[in-house]
User: What shape does this take?
Amino acid sequence: MVWNKKLIACSESETITVGEKLGKVLKSSDIVLLTGELGAGKTTFVKGIAMGMGISDAVKSPTFTLAREYGTPTLKLYHLDLYRIEVKDFNVIEDYFDGTGIVAVEWGEGILPYISSSYVRVGLFYLDMTVRMIEIMVCCNGDDCELLRRVKVAFER
Ligand SMILES: Nc1ncnc2c1ncn2[C@@H]1O[C@H](COP(=O)(O)OP(=O)(O)OP(=O)(O)O)[C@@H](O)[C@H]1O
Ligand SMILES: [Mg+2]
Assistant: This one.
């Protein structure tokens, strides 16, 4: 089952605000896949997720590092960027999906065959220099989609 919601963000800070709303309802082991062309705002959105989780660390693009880890041992955010990685071998990043933290993955479509749980997909579309369309999707695996209930609370008010 898939649920989706489309929003318009007219500035970088509006995209952060949308990410923040999502970050507030996420729990350890939730997976967020971010899609969108170069510069669409994926990293910006993850900054919002971190803020919503109450993480104050400065979120930077993990493009050259593959992954960055934020938060505390009890509330972690794993931020991955698979732009330069072929996910033929999921083993390389598997540990981040061990349920100990929220995983936000830029350029992450390649890992879809390896995901068996419900997940959030965030599509960012460039409309103008400062305007983006943001599509939030919840893809449910199994009948009881607890993740969907949380995301709906965040976006259907
Ligand atoms: N509405 C907006 N939402 C997000 N970013 C915006 C917006 N308007 C302008 N920007 C600018 O677009 C850029 C988005 O960069 P960001 O690193 O978040 O993109 P990205 O999708 O992660 O790129 P990459 O594919 O290189 O990782 C930033 O420079 C930001 O200031
Ligand atoms: Mg990025």
Notes: The mean pLDDT is 93. The two ends are 21 Å apart (CA to CA). The longest strand covers residues 119-128.
